[in-house]
Specification:
Number of domains: 2
Low-confidence stretches: none
Bound molecules: FE(III)-(4-mesoporphyrinone)
Number of strands: 5
Mean pLDDT: 94
Strand content: under 5%
Strand order of the largest sheet: 3-4-5
Distance between the termini: 39 Å
């Protein structure tokens, strides 16, 4: 019938997927004592982004539809180092709700993580289906942190984003940290890496960033040496067109939240062939339910 197995159990009771239950289950795995800064939220945001950011608007390939990072070629791409941690975290939830596709689950996890860490509501709707390993996008679709403004534009314009959206998305680096054993870089971008805020932009504009003296890859550090910026982060203040948006978001957190929510939702939906009848939002967020 093409229906999920659960739909066939009791034909008199039509199967209705409970996305709110999945949201609750995701919210419940975020706090994790002893892991990084105490939250798995940041790495779930990174998984949602890396599974979506392979999209190429010309060929229509890549993007979140497919969850092809389950397979060897894509899981092994250098940019995805460490993301097995996030995929493994979601595996018990996939087992608990076998009717949800990995691609819907990974993107929903990113949206729920942003919301639960204090960020804006991210409009999310289901409709992604999982593809086989031969649908893996080629390596090199995700950005390289050691490069400059032209590279960032090439990568994000290929997905269909503009300069303002690039800067808005970049505010997600308020979250999480770099790991020497994953990317080679070290440290978080802000002092509140488990709270979604506009601190990334205030750090960029207010702090004196200097090139870090070490054997590792080129990165920038604050005077205390405990916060970091990647070369691709510094580009946002070195490039005048990017910088004006950085300054706006540093001053106006509400504007940042609204623009981030729009751009992140767009990112998670790139290349997804939604049925035109799918409502833009199917479920209240876990946060709203708990309120
Ligand atoms: Fe990241 N990003 N990102 N990123 N990223 C890292 C970590 C996170 C780039 C590079 C890196 C975005 C854009 C870019 C998050 C979310 C987003 C790391 C460190 C690198 C090197 C990985 C590690 O060592 O563990 C580059 C070059 C980007 C293009 C400018 C997005 C906008 C900011 C799209 C985005 O949402 C998150 C969250 C993390 C933290 C992960 C963690 O484990 O804590």
């Amino acid at each position: 019938l093409g229906l999920p197995p659960a739909a066939r159990v009791n034909p008199s009771k039509p199967f209705k997927p409970d996305y709110n239950a999945v949201r609750e289950a995701i919210a419940d795995i975020l706090d994790k004592e002893g892991y990084d800064d105490g939250s798995t939220g940041p790495i779930l945001v990174r998984l949602a982004w890396h599974s979506s950011g392979t999209y190429d608007k010309e060929s229509g390939t890549g993007g979140s539809n497919g969850a092809t990072m389950r397979f060897g070629p894509e899981a092994g791409h250098g940019a995805n180092a460490g993301l097995e941690v996030a995929r493994d975290l979601l595996e018990p939830i996939k087992k608990q709700f076998p009717w949800i596709s990995y691609s819907d689950l990974w993107t929903l996890a990113g949206a729920v993580a942003v919301e639960e860490m204090g960020g804006p509501k991210i409009l999310w709707r289901p409709g992604r289906s999982d593809k086989a390993g031969d649908a893996c996008p080629p390596d090199g679709r995700l950005p390289d942190a050691s490069q400059g403004a032209q590279h960032i534009r090439n990568i994000f314009y290929r997905m269909g984003f503009n300069d303002q959206e690039i800067v808005a998305l970049s505010g997600a680096h308020a979250l999480g940290r770099c790991h020497t054993d994953r990317s080679g870089y070290v440290n978080p971008w802000t002092y509140s890496p488990t709270t979604f805020s506009n601190l990334y932009f205030t750090e960029l504009t207010d702090t004196k960033w200097k090139k870090k003296k070490w054997d590792g890859p080129e990165q920038y550090e604050n005077p205390a040496g405990d916060l970091m910026m990647l070369p691709t982060d510094m580009v946002l203040v070195w490039d005048k067109k990017f910088k004006k948006h950085v300054q706006e978001y540093a001053k106006d957190q509400d504007k940042f939240f609204a623009d981030f929510a729009a751009a992140f939702s767009k990112l998670l939906e790139l290349g997804v062939p939604f049925d035109s009848t799918t409502p833009k939002e199917v479920a209240a967020s876990a946060l709203e339910r708990r309120a």
